[in-house]
Amino acid sequence: MATHAMMPAYKVLYYGYLSTADKELYREPLELMYTKYHIKQAARASIKVVQEELNRKGMTPQGRERKKRVCQKLWHEETTTVLRLSIYMGVLAILKEYVMIFQGSQTLVHKLHDRQLELFLAFLACFVKAKHITQLSPRALREMVLEDHILLPSKEVYVGKDADTFRSQNPNHALLVPFLADVRKAYITTAVYLQKKLPLASPTLTALSALDPLLRGHSQATIQLNLFFLPYYHGERFNGRKHYGTLTLRLLRLSQVSFPTSKRFSAKQLQISPSMTDFSISNKENRL
Question: What is the pTM of this model?
Fold first, then answer.
């Protein structure tokens, strides 16, 4: 976003590194930009002095190559650069909201299942027809094959505000077709990666979502917690003794679990009261 906001300033700065022929070619666009931002003549003269100084500045071969590459993106390929920045700003905002869960001070493991599902659905909605994703279970979403017939047409794919404006105003532009093809390819590649990396159908995260205070007293919360605790109680051994792990012990204590005396029991015998409101994780053996 900062790069997009600074584009006019970058263009003015790197105008000084353009060749003489390119400066003449882009002189009019530069003047139009000065007019757009109400740059006065005195300021324009000062900017020109700085640009001429930059042009005289000695650089290493690597430095010249780097400046040439930046000038290429800012001036010669300006339209393509703006289109790509538009899609970056639009899509990265979706991903950032999910990443922020892990950077907060609060423990939100009980929100993780719902948040990652919301993330994946929001991402798919950018390029997949709604009717193919709204009624799917987490497991079905993870196993879904992104075939062409379920994808949105190019004119409807989400590309961000600036790119969408460009697409509507220039539907037949030569740069639009390859740009939209790259966007579709990037969407599919990223979606497949998310399907592989996100534990969308994780039984553990599904059970832990029952710890949400909003679900206190709900029958489904009790069922999920029973399903989560039973495997730990049924005979996991560690150094010759039954081992629950720090996380499990804390959850059991906070959940007010009553243990049966027999070694084998049914889910009905392990009664869990869904009355917990918060917990902390400190566990090396049972990382989530």
Answer: 0.72
